[in-house]
């Protein structure tokens, strides 16, 4: 078995849940951050004890929710737990998601001292009107101030998230947002198209017919414009929605796309191990009561334990790997699954190559520029 795994820690606390958010999070959680951190450490210890093979960790990611609602001492205790239980590498990438408006110069310095070396700022937009429509609590000014504070606190690896396809947004507005982001000079930019998730306030507005979203053509133009503006500014598009300055790709997220091992901790967190072949998935309960009760009983909180079928694993290997613009090696598929890729997906591959959606170069397959735009069509061909 591979000896390493990425560690994901889910922090489900929010000041107020955003209108587009479908993640496991609460603005009225029935327990405090100290109690939750203790549960996380308990879960990490139990999981380490039941693994068939010991795993080390090369990355640690605290996501949410709003992890920046945790005091630095609690973040430090989680990092210490990862070092103790999963041999977190001294040079590990340790990322904390933070929302502008929830950080101060003191808290950022505390996170840096605790061992966080990469910050992911949930900017989402640098327009106050758009932030209000999304239900964000911070302002564009606070986002810029948080970025500056993080730099002064010693963070030399900062990513920001942006969302396009927002209600009332057009292409010229998105161009302005990208240029404003480039002026900040973050090390990493994740630029996602808005997805209206079932059960969210935005979904209810859409059902009522009062959500004025850009049409499909405009949304596609915004997607294309992202690379057009970020590439000349020095940002490499290394994944469909992710751009980085040289050497600043997200090491943690690449584990997901390369189908590596990852262990998730906290309510609603997901996990995946490559062994037993062809893979095993499970997740923690979303409900905090069920999550805590399992830990109180000394059992690992785990539901939906699912061994993957070989066919599903093959398709997953392709559509996850092809999200990265480096593409996939056909020989690696044969090594992984014991058969040539063309034997399993020959007709689909030839059709995508003929349509100009895939490119084959030196034993690698990658999305063409048009394939990036029509990636869902490419991925669907393998399902």
From TrEMBL:
<keyword id="KW-0411">Iron-sulfur</keyword>
<keyword id="KW-0963">Cytoplasm</keyword>
<comment type="function">
    <text>Probably acts as a heme chaperone, transferring heme to an unknown acceptor. Binds one molecule of heme per monomer, possibly covalently. Binds 1 [4Fe-4S] cluster. The cluster is coordinated with 3 cysteines and an exchangeable S-adenosyl-L-methionine.</text>
</comment>
<dbReference type="InterPro" id="IPR006638">
    <property type="entry name" value="Elp3/MiaA/NifB-like_rSAM"/>
</dbReference>
<dbReference type="InterPro" id="IPR058240">
    <property type="entry name" value="rSAM_sf"/>
</dbReference>
<comment type="similarity">
    <text>Belongs to the anaerobic coproporphyrinogen-III oxidase family. HemW subfamily.</text>
</comment>
<dbReference type="InterPro" id="IPR034505">
    <property type="entry name" value="Coproporphyrinogen-III_oxidase"/>
</dbReference>
<keyword id="KW-0004">4Fe-4S</keyword>
<dbReference type="GO" id="GO:0004109">
    <property type="term" value="F:coproporphyrinogen oxidase activity"/>
</dbReference>
<dbReference type="GO" id="GO:0046872">
    <property type="term" value="F:metal ion binding"/>
</dbReference>
<dbReference type="InterPro" id="IPR007197">
    <property type="entry name" value="rSAM"/>
</dbReference>
<dbReference type="InterPro" id="IPR010723">
    <property type="entry name" value="HemN_C"/>
</dbReference>
<feature type="domain" description="Radical SAM core">
    <location>
        <begin position="1"/>
        <end position="236"/>
    </location>
</feature>
<keyword id="KW-0143">Chaperone</keyword>
<dbReference type="InterPro" id="IPR013785">
    <property type="entry name" value="Aldolase_TIM"/>
</dbReference>
<dbReference type="Pfam" id="PF04055">
    <property type="entry name" value="Radical_SAM"/>
</dbReference>
<keyword id="KW-0349">Heme</keyword>
<dbReference type="GO" id="GO:0005737">
    <property type="term" value="C:cytoplasm"/>
</dbReference>
<dbReference type="InterPro" id="IPR004559">
    <property type="entry name" value="HemW-like"/>
</dbReference>
<protein>
    <recommendedName>
        <fullName>Heme chaperone HemW</fullName>
    </recommendedName>
</protein>
<dbReference type="Pfam" id="PF06969">
    <property type="entry name" value="HemN_C"/>
</dbReference>
<keyword id="KW-0479">Metal-binding</keyword>
<keyword id="KW-0949">S-adenosyl-L-methionine</keyword>
<dbReference type="GO" id="GO:0006779">
    <property type="term" value="P:porphyrin-containing compound biosynthetic process"/>
</dbReference>
<dbReference type="GO" id="GO:0051539">
    <property type="term" value="F:4 iron, 4 sulfur cluster binding"/>
</dbReference>
<keyword id="KW-0408">Iron</keyword>
């Amino acid at each position: 078995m591979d000896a390493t795994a990425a560690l994901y820690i889910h922090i489900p606390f929010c000041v107020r849940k955003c209108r587009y958010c479908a993640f496991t999070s609460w603005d009225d959680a029935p327990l405090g951050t100290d109690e939750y951190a203790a549960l996380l450490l308990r879960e990490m210890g139990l999981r380490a004890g039941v693994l068939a093979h010991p795993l080390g960790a090369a990355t640690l990611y605290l996501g949410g929710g709003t992890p920046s609602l945790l005091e630095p001492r609690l973040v430090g205790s989680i990092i210490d737990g990862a070092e103790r239980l999963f041999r977190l590498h001294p040079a590990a990438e340790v990322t904390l998601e933070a929302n502008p408006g929830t950080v101060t110069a003191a808290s950022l310095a505390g996170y840096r001292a605790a061992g966080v070396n990469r910050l992911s700022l949930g900017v989402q937009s640098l327009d106050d009107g758009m932030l209000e429509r999304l239900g964000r609590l911070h302002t564009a000014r606070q986002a810029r101030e948080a970025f500056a504070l993080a730099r002064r606190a010693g963070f030399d690896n900062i990513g920001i998230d942006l969302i396009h396809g927002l209600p009332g947004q057009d292409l010229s507005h998105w161009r302005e947002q990208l240029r404003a982001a480039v002026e900040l000079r973050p090390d990493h930019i994740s630029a996602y198209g808005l997805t209206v998730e079932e059960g969210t306030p935005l979904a209810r507005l859409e059902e009522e017919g009062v959500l004025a979203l850009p049409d499909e053509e405009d949304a596609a133009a915004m997607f294309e414009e992202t690379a057009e503006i970020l590439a000349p500014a020095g940002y490499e598009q290394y994944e469909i929605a992710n751009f980085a300055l040289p050497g600043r790709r997200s090491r943690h997220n690449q584990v997901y796309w390369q189908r590596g091992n990852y262990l998730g901790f906290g309510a609603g967190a997901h996990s995946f191990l490559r062994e037993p072949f062809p893979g095993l998935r499970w997740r923690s309960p979303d409900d905090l009561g069920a999550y805590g009760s399992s830990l109180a009983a000394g059992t690992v909180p785990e539901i939906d334990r699912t061994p993957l079928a070989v066919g599903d694993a093959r398709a997953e290997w392709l559509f996850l790997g092809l999200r990265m613009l480096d593409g996939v090696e056909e020989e690696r598929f044969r090594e992984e699954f014991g058969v040539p890729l063309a034997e399993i997906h020959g007709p689909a591959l030839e059709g995508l190559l003929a349509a100009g959606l895939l490119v084959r170069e030196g034993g690698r397959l990658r999305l063409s520029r048009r394939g990036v735009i029509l990636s869902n069509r490419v991925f669907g061909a393998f399902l």
